Amino acid sequence: MLIFKDIITxxxxxxxxxxxxxxxxxFYKVYGxxxxxxxxxxxxxxxxxxxxxxxxxxxxxxxxxxVIDFVDACKLVEAPAYDKKTFMAYxxxxxxxxxxxxxxxxxxxxxxxxxxxxxxxMKYIKGNIKAFQIxxxxxxxxxxxxxxxxxxxxxxxxxxxxxxxxxxxV
Length: 170
Description:
The chain is α+β, with helices and mostly antiparallel strands. Helix 3 runs antiparallel to helix 4 (108-127). It has helices at residues 50-53, 69-73, 84-104, 108-127, and strands at 2-6, 12-15, 20-23, 27-31, 34-38, 64-68, 77-79, 133-136, 146-152, 155-161, 165-169. The chain has a single domain (2-36, 69-169), classed as Metal Binding Protein, Guanine Nucleotide Exchange Factor, Chain A, CATH 2.170.150. Belongs to the TCTP family. This is Translationally-controlled tumor protein homolog.
């Protein structure tokens, strides 16, 4: 299995368990699905046996939440929405951090590719910024990568800059 981590923070952003494809030469477009997560705590985990203690059958109100599978699995955190001005400020610093990190790791070909596609990618995100929900990795580091989530034919997808990822085989 491959885990794709943010080059800056090391946060896990997605795995190859999700369908993904290259998009515009700059992104990985990761497809997800909505699923129901059961938020109930099992009383037996705490040594309780409700049916034996109070004559309760153990039937408690169930609590569940609709989630997007990769958001839930990788503990992505929704961030405040960007306007165009906020996005441009973030993007300028982000590109600098990614290029520095790629250079430190000796990935000079990736620096060239990243810079080659950055302008078109920036224009695409900026032009669609109101449609995207923004997600960060679990650390919520403001310098780290963010994902741009949208929907296509009732299927959620998220975009991550592919050159800002480190693949880890497990």
